[in-house]
Every structure is written in structure tokens, then in C-alpha cells.
Design goal:
Strand content: 5-15%
Largest sheet: 3 strands, parallel
Radius of gyration: 24 Å
Order of helices and strands: HHEHEEEE
């Protein structure tokens, strides 16, 4: 339970024990309704803060420098599609990835059937919405060399 909610309950309990404003008449019911309202608001805030939006800034195929920190950034501080997927996979909740116009080519090589998004195909293990900015502006491909693809899109 968040600190602010615990503190609110502690203060209300102290008011009741000391015969304060919440100790007579219908005040206990008001106290309970207020507590339920605070809990409901806390739950809504907690649920909505898990979703993240990552703005891809490069078409290069690079890894996130620190997956799970909430920041999509490779070693050069750019946000690639693979880095955004890695970051979104590491976070709770449904996330959105916005792609810059361009062609996104899988260039990192990984072991066959690797499932950690470290190379090869893009491994999506959570709820992610991927959107291109602009109509017909993004392309995803496995390789630029004909017949050399070892993974899938």
C-alpha cells in the first residue's frame, strides 16, 4: 500500500480513538467511504502508470543498454525498435512503440530459437502496440540480402 494511503488510514484511526471528529454519528461511515474512495483512486493511478510509450529514434538494430529502467536507450543513447521491445518486455503493463519513418532491418545475429530479443527476430513477450508515424512510412525486414534471412519478422 502506498505510503500516503497508509498515513491517511493511520490519521483517521487516531481521530477515532481520540474521540475526534470521526467518532460520533455517521462519521464512521463517512470514514469508511472516504477510505474506499482513496483505495479506488490509488488502484486507478497504479494501473495507469504501468503503460509506457517509447519513441524510436533510429532504424539501427541495437539493444537497450539497461532493460527495465523505463528508458529506451542503446549505448549511443538512441532508441531502436529492438531496444524499445526489450524495454517494453521488461516492464509491466501494455506499452506502445512509435516508429520513425524508415526501414527496420534485423542485423543482430543470435543463436537459433533464442527468445530473449538479443538478436535475430524481435521477441515480443508482453502486450505491445507498434505504430508507424505516417502512412506507408515503415518497413520491417529480416535481411537486405535476398535468400539470407535466418529469422522471421
Amino acid at each position: 500500500m502506498p505510503y500516503a494511503v497508509r498515513e491517511w488510514f493511520r490519521r483517521r484511526s487516531a481521530d477515532i480513538e481520540e474521540g475526534g471528529i470521526y467518532s460520533s454519528g455517521s462519521a464512521p461511515m463517512i470514514n469508511i467511504c472516504s477510505a474506499i474512495s482513496v483505495l479506488a483512486i490509488s488502484f486507478v493511478i497504479a494501473v495507469t502508470t504501468n503503460a509506457a510509450t517509447f519513441n524510436v529514434t533510429t532504424t539501427n538494430d541495437t539493444l537497450d543498454a539497461n532493460p527495465g529502467d523505463g528508458i529506451c536507450a542503446d549505448a549511443g543513447e538512441a532508441c531502436s525498435l529492438r531496444a524499445a521491445i526489450g524495454e517494453a518486455n521488461a516492464l509491466a503493463g501494455a506499452d506502445t512503440i512509435l516508429l520513425v519513418p524508415g526501414t527496420f532491418t534485423q542485423t543482430l545475429v543470435a543463436a537459433a530459437n533464442e527468445g530473449a530479443n538479443s538478436g535475430g527476430d524481435w521477441d515480443i513477450t508482453s502486450v505491445i502496440t507498434i505504430r508507424g508515424i505516417g502512412e506507408f512510412s515503415c518497413a520491417l525486414e529480416t535481411s537486405r540480402s535476398l535468400g539470407s534471412a535466418t529469422e522471421r519478422v
